[in-house]
Protein 1
Amino acid sequence: MSLFQPTDIVRVLPEIVLAGFAILIMVLDPFVGARGKSSLGVLALLGVAGAAASTHWMSQVPGMAFNGTVSADNFSLYFIHLFLLVAALTLLGSVNYLERDQINHGEFYALVLMATVGMCFMAASTELILIFLGLEISSISTYVLAGFKRHNTQSNESSAKYFLLGSFATAFFLYGIAFTYGVTGSTNLSELNAHLDRSADWSSLISVALLLMFVGLAFKVSAVPFQIWTPDVYQGAPAPVTAFLSVGPKAAAFAVILRVFLVGFAGTSSLSLWLIWVSAILTMSLGNLAALWQTNVKRFLAYSSIAHAGYVLVGIAAAIASGSSEATSSVLFYLTAYALMNVGVFILIAHLAGPGERFTNIDDFTGFGFDRPGAAACLTVFMLSLAGIPTMAGFFAKFYVFRAAIHANLIGLTVVAVLNSVVSVYYYLRLVVVMYMREGKAEASTADLPMLLSVAIAVSLIGIFYLGLLPDSFLAFANGAAKHLR
Amino acid sequence: MAESMAFNYFLTVLTFLPLAGALSIAFIRPEAAGRIRWVALIYSLVTLALAIAAFVGFNPNQSGFQFVEQYPWISSPPIGYSIGVDGLSLLLILLSAFLTPLSILASWSSIHTRVKEFYLFLLALETGMIGVFVSLDLFLFFVFWEVMLIPMYFLIGVWGHERRVYAAIKFILYTMIGSALMLVGILYLYKVTGTFDLQIILRDLPGMWHSLPASAQAWLFLAFFVAFAIKVPMFPFHTWLPDAHVEAPVAGSVILAGVLLKMGTYGMLRFCLPLFPQASRDFAPIVSVLAVIGIIYGALVAMVQPDMKKLVAYSSVAHMGFVVLGIFALNINGVEGAIYQMASHGVSTGALFLLVGMLYDRRHTRLITEFGGLATSLPVFSTFFLIVTLSSLGLPMLNGFVGEFLIIVGAFHALAVYAALAAVGVVLAAVYLLWMYQRVFFGEVTNPKNRDLPDCDAREKLILVVLVLVILWMGIYPNPILRRLDASAAQVVQRVGSTSTQMAARAPSGGGEGGERVR
């Protein structure tokens, strides 16, 4: 048996391209003057574009690569596209930010690309060890990114917290893998599936393994009770990094949850359902209730992102309970809608907060709506979409998830979810209230939106309305991906 | 060919024309306030013309929905862009299209700040309102129902009075709690029937109850009903209304009272009764009691209000209690009276809010004690006010009478006590409205500030003359409207399968008599 086939390379081509560009950026970094660092950002964008182009060849050769450890299927493709989108939007929103706050170093761009490589491997691999490697690659890159403002104590705190708690969580995940291997003798998800299917009397150790892995993943998606780190990390990290953190690693961890719970551990669905069900209720409720009291925009968006993780968990619970690919596809759809809204809002806030991110309190936006109608309107759209108002992506995403949950007969869970989404309307509208309905002079930056940022915001807004009004074609894409999760 | 094309998309054009107006306003410079007002007015007038054309072109002898348009929108889950009207929705569309230009005219000089955004939201709101009434797909209905909240939220929150933010948030949260539960109901219906298309659900659902849990119908009824009861608002859910009304700008109050409240009762007629007949019959006694409580309670609270706007707001609680009572009488008189009363209340209460707004423009207060003897200084204005007051309390020959009469007849057949208590409500309405009128307009001018107020200008006269003409038309010759309601009212009653033996008491003659008798 040869180590690998030539086509295997093609099946991981996007990751290779991204990693290649990341290395290239680090090599070029010393040779580029302080003023030219932004060109490295453009290079990173080119890398993302190259990776996106390479998915075309990857999709030509579906199948397993490297002895069944990586799967080039539609599910992987969907997530790779999603991660590339998130990376591209983050990069577009970062270049001017880094210049403004004088932290424009080449590593930033390389780290974003490396984190994306890790995320792609998390979503694409069907082997727990490789998933773990992907998790580590993305985690370590994001630990550094969170502390990228080296001279800012909040950023340092953010990085340290994320690193300490994150390494605990990955340790739990690894421990879970060890247990799994001990019980079943395999770390391959499809073999696990077969094994758990065959042995009806799976030992209780497998429950322990599942629980441990869930702890690790729940940390990454900031599901309650493993969400404690989220507000501090999101608040302290540079806002474009927060944009990336709140979506990328989260979506990757959800991809892993889908693969592990729906494929590897499909045989233990009663336990998984119970775990996810409880976690979903706690995550939504705590995220939303805590968000009500926040006075800082980044912090309330942190709690909002916890709440959104809860809605995604509702979709996953529906997928486990019903086993229908429609439920899985609702989760995939949700993640993309969430990515557009959340990355968009964070990179916009990054700009509006002004140099050094001084103005991130909600009150800093008093009267902003009529000072800067354009930017305020964008912010309003993001808020309304996050709140789930129809004609925007956030609404359809919730609608699909709730439909799947009702279909799986999880009516109680759905009622909790819809009531939660009403609560969330209150705090999302608070920013709108402050912007439009209170008199005052806005502190928030009135500098014009830089060109690259405008492109990113425009892409998010168009995406939000496209998914919110004509979700059909995109849903077909998500459905196709969900069907391949087997 | 061109004509038939236009006809095919008639309702779509009617629905989205105001939105097109809002988009055109978006491209006008904010400083050009005059131009913005005219653009808004013209779009709303063209919409009104289309609505009148729909009203005239509607065939009253044909049952079912007319002007139907159906296109697939989303394939999985199957969601259609499916719209159409029957007599019920047609009347409410006409009402929305009628009140919007009046609101635009009424805001002509009272809104000076952020004029562009104001008219933009007002027109967007109109599309939302018409959309709610034309939707024949549960999903589409829900989309319009929710989207419409956003412009109203901004209208109250940005252009309202002192406690506007509180009122705006309360308004949106109350409505959303209801609609969130309705969404669960809609999704459950979808799970059962596999479609969001109202007409298919109406056809298939009756045969499916036996395969569902026994309590399913009651829960579904409640999921929809609570959403609508909050919107109406019915007695224990009414607390958002006085706040929203008092804080809203005049145009907001007019639209809120005139159209938005009707969405609740519209929803009951369109969804609760036909979809869940058994549950509707089971819950009818409770709902009727709540409606009667609303009538009496609203009237008593209105009586002691020192603020005119609040008084009118509480009178809405009482009047809408009548509408709900009529609907849950579950017979044709009650239902038809309720629909008529919906339109009539929209006109009268809209007019009352406009009048109170005109007073506010002059004196910047709405406290009854600040006024007195206005009849001498404002003769024209006080005449108009009197006519509208009389119409609101249900004087025969004016619009309020027809609906209230039919409702009381219907309620009598359901249970005589309801009718008796509702009649007490009519008396109480006379008390609080006339007492207010007396304190504001009669007697000596005690407050020197009231002495030299300007009477109605041409713009105000135009608004009021139009309103009074409609009030008279609806009171004297209700037949053109009632004729168009027959089929839809009969269909609702037939679906709910009323136990009442009074089905045969044909409403058009009853309504006609109401008008005849006073003549």
Protein 2
Amino acid sequence: MSGKITNREPYQQAYYPPAPTGFTRYMRTSLIWQAIRFLVINLKILKLMAKSHH
Amino acid sequence: MSRIVILGAGISGHTVARYLNKWVGKQHEIVVVSPNAKWNWIPSNIWVGVGHMKEEEVTFDLAKVYGKTNVDFRQAKALSINPEGNADSASPFVTVEYTKAEKAGVQENIPYDYLVNATGPKLNFGATPGLGPEHGHTVSVCTAGHALEANKKLQETIDAMKAGENKTIVIGTGHGMCTCQGAAFEYIYNVDHVLREAGVREMARIIWISNEYELGDFGMGGVHIKRGGYVTNGKTFAESLMVERGIEWITRAHVNKVEAGKIHYEAMDGSYHELAFDFSMLIPPFAGVGLKAFDKAGGDITSQVFAPNGFMKVDADYTPRPYLEWSAKDWPSTYQTPSYRNIFAVGIAFAPPHLISKPMQSANGTAINPTAPRTGMPSAAMAKAVAMSIRDMLNGSEKPTHTASMAEMGAACVASTGSDIFKGTAATMTVFPVVPDFEKYPEYGRDIDLTFGEIGLAGHWMKYFLHHAFIYQAKLKPGWSILPD
């Protein structure tokens, strides 16, 4: 037994949730894509507010 | 001329005040009673709590802003309501005690024609021994002052890590009946962000602890959103965010005691645990502010006007029913009290008919469930509806003319996960409606096209933009009324 860790413990809390890929992480701070998302999110929130008023 | 008294100058109280001032301020008298001299944009307190903003950037002087209007601002706290007057006066009145230094402790009866209770919550740190910054061992971001102190202690923790010490940071909720998980959710990611900026993230073990049954519940029973070709529960994304940043989590926890460096909590299976910490920010449970109510003869009618938790009963259906028989129709729409047509309660001050999340108990019978959120966008929407109703009732309407049920309105929440103009991110979440309506939307209780969530820099820009827009609006600067609430 060398004591060197060569495997990884499964079935832990962090084992199951989805992890973002490198592309997803890049797009989260891509200026062009996020400028588009900024407009889209604003439109979605305006739509939500329009439907909320009575 | 009628007098409208508004108790509280937070998001909902100030919203009622600014609209009534705009619509009827010249014809009628508007009195705002608040024990605080300053207005606070609470959603940005988390940035004060990590040193990215100063207290002055999230607060402003209420007297100065109301000085530009017809609003009569009294820095005082409300003690009791006499909705039928008393032996000496047939007019209803509210008894207040001044908190402003020059008149501190002086009491006064203020008669009213309409009363709006927007007192917000009492931060009930006392519910958990050892909780809170004043008499306990944890910090808070519930007020700007608390957030300042939180940042001071956080910076001390960072300095210790820079000196080579490993630290455990615990952030979440400090009781089994807390709401406002969102503030803790934002704070934990901002702490993670500043630790990375300081180059000490690897020295910290960061742990989330909350009373949610699953991550992403937020007191709304969680959400389902469309993503990647599936309709997926928000728990998946909340867990993903934690794992991505190396944050551990404990859910279904009722924190029952805090000692110096040690959190005690009860789990859903009834077992008891201890968690050591060096720095901890735990949100307290909320309660009503303790207003009393008296009838004309001086009899105590507090239990008729308020629910046992101190929040004011309004036009909700408070009939106790099992969870499966709860309905969207249980939720109030006009926020008028059932006994007194001239009293309304908005924001956190109104008593919800029940939780939104399913009630859960530990094996020992301890309630461990988030209570219903009613802050931010919904509190402003209900405040504006009440202001419109009062305006119309002053003009002759018999009944409230506008509604804003949380079961019929949406809400947007932008939760910062790191503040930086180019590298920051935030989770943008919307739900429609806030309270699920399974009769209208049988599968998920919500409109899946209007309920969405995503994380990215655009969310940070939104949060930053909203910070400035809402403070601009609250300061009543030119054009404030055309900005959305």
